[in-house]
């Protein structure tokens, strides 16, 4: 393509790649098919950068992303990726107290295991999906600038008088008989046309905003994509979880230890066992045949008034109290706490009794072990005490040195080594585990038996902060606005040069023809002709 300026016979100097002279409208670039009127008029014959420059690396990169084909391919890839991410629930939708790897494998089998291993359970927060969104945004920006800027300049600097060949090339053309331009101008203004006059030449235009509809649409899309990408900025978006035992105080994640919460009380209500329900709830307790009716957390929010120093104790100031129910979050400082689930599998305390093996009778009083902070000694009777020599909250194995090893700090499978110490007798040792006991020393006269247990109630809360919603709302609104403008407004132009008249519209030629014929009839002029209709009748 010749990159030199193109000088029209009318004397106007046009930028390289121009198809129609921006002054008179004459076709000045023979590299384009003269029959493709619609394509030429799409950008009013102005030069599009991606079609005129292709020498440097920058030109090639720009042309690649400004291509509509590239934009469509990137959009399709994004849609396909988003669809794959919706095949199975993303990790932040599964219960907070469940291991993701186990969840996907148990619920979806090998396919779920593969889905998790490939990282598709966190697809929308993956680095490659973010890059894909960025490429789509850049493609939209490049395509909009590449075509929108030349179009804007061309429409802003429209000349009133056009070359006869420009008028003949339009789809709607006609001949006027001694036209009264003053009366014609007044009639056009009544139809809300903006009219420019230059001697015996006239340009009437309305609905120019329609031509910018796609670019308004693109602006909305770019804001939407920007809002989506801002979700990767911690200051703008946070989606986490916190688990708090009843009575405990924990720092709220995402707040940089500025805010703490205390689980004051967890309320759990069940449906009546006799009630018939067709609801299949994942909260069904198979052991007790109960279905959760309501569960909520009553909490107190604290603010740390002391600078966050590693290892330092926070100074907490009560901010407010409240409760959280399903779909009724607790809100503070741009954050929201949602009730996710609960867990009662952690043991809180276990009560034991000491019996005489010979008589099978209980000796003294029962004793209760606080599994979170067990005491070392328990007084059973005046001459009998029980000492806790070793303890594992989640028993795994017995080490070579005889100590109890634990898998986790969670109190789900406790094991104990108790010493029964009676006055004037040798101490007796025994190992107690869930549903089993074992004497360590020989000829024990006493046995320790399990009596009862209490459980912790752990509440699981989702912590959310989303400052990107205004961007998403504004972007979506602008997107719909651009869609409406491009769909329901027509850009209509009418040129009159002496006795010649021609008209062009971005869409709906039938409507423009009827409107123009009404105007011409009012001015006692012959009807306009449609080239397409004339060709069909031949």
From TrEMBL:
Location in or out of the cell: Membrane
Pfam families linked: ResB (PF05140)
Main location: membrane
Keywords: Cytochrome c-type biogenesis, Membrane, Transmembrane, Transmembrane helix
Domain called ResB-like: residue spans: 68-516
Membrane topology: Multi-pass membrane protein
Stretches that traverse the bilayer: 61-88, 127-145, 215-238, 469-489
InterPro entries in UniProt: Cyt_c_bgen_Ccs1/CcsB/ResB (IPR023494), ResB-like_domain (IPR007816)
Cellular component terms (Gene Ontology): membrane
GO BP terms in the entry: cytochrome complex assembly
Protein name per UniProt: Cytochrome c biogenesis protein ResB
